[in-house]
Amino acid sequence: MADAENLVADIEALERKLAEAKQAITKRFIGQERVVDLTLSALLCGGHAILIGLPGLGKTRLVETLSTVMGLNGNRVQFTPDLMPADILGSEVLETGADGSRGFKFIPGPIFCQLLMADEINRASPRTQSALLQAMQEKVVTVAGMDRKLDAPFHVLATQNPIEQEGTYPLPEAQLDRFLVQIDVAYPDRATERDILLATTGTEDAQSHQVFDTESLLAAQTLLRRMPVGDAVVEMILDLVRAFRPSDPSAGERVRETVAWGPGPRAAQALMLTVRARALLQGRLAPSPEDVLDMARPVLTHRMALSFSAKARGEDLGALIDHVAQGMMRTEAAA
Question: What range(s) does the ChlI/MoxR AAA lid domain occupy (predicted)?
Answer without folding.
Answer: 253-316
